[in-house]
Amino acid sequence: MGYVELGLVTDTAADLSPRFLEEEAVGLVPIYVHLGGRRYKDWRELTPDALYQAIRAGAEPVTEPPGVEDFAEVYERYLQIYDRVLSLHVSGELSKTVDRAREAALKVAPTRIRVVDSGMVSAGLGAMVLRAVEMLRKGAEEEAVVREWERLKHSSLYFSVADLSHLARNGRLPRFGEVVGNLLGLRPILRIEKGHIRFLKVAREGAVPEVLARLVLEELQGKPARITIAHTDAKSEWIEGLKKSLEGALRLERGRITRSGATIAANVGLGAIAIHAYSIE
């Protein structure tokens, strides 16, 4: 049997829709969301709309990483088509997902599956998957894709949340952020750094888009860049304001806006907004 050389697998913390990933032949392993006494597979069994509505009604969802058997099922299926699999997942500092992936790889075919910790989440993880899809379409080798992922691990992902209780409940909140983020009229500005959530500063609520845009512009320093804005039903004027600030000041090579799925919304709550940026070299 002739194999296609390299397949890609990721998880639902990438905030990429199953339909898109299926079109690009990227395998998807859903993270579980516990809601109302039931366990759902993100995107497969629980849409963003359904979770957002449940949170508005007072639900307190929590997430659970996929099981080893969930990864094994996808790996076994993909190895019937591909000679090797690259499996890229949400930061191991934020979830046990990548650990489960490694266990499954050892069980199924350790010499044919390469599991990579993205050090990222949401828009950052999604950007890394999209970059790999683009590179493989152009004929890139496995090592070139992994090198690019290593570079993108150091890219910028800044975000702000409206309600810190979700991060606190899921054990992902920097201690200092818990104190200052709940001050009236202020919102915390956070960053993913080395796979961790790092508290940066507080900002007046109305200034959040401006602060996020300034952080990205200072970091990119005029380089051509790709941008993703991700949100959990953040204010539309914030999204448009952030978009316009960046379009006017950046050498924007590509940009997209995405609404986060249940995995992310369960951990950050509603009204969160994030921006991921990386330079093109």
TrEMBL record:
One of its GO terms (molecular function) is lipid binding. Pfam families: DegV. The keyword Flavoprotein does not apply. InterPro entries: DegV, DegV_C, DegV_domain_contain. The keyword GTP-binding does not apply. Coiled coil: none annotated. Keywords: Lipid-binding. It comes from the Bacteria. PANTHER family: DEGV DOMAIN-CONTAINING PROTEIN DR_1986-RELATED, FATTY ACID-BINDING PROTEIN TM_1468. This is Fatty acid-binding protein DegV. The lineage of its organism: Bacteria, Thermotogati, Deinococcota, Deinococci, Thermales.
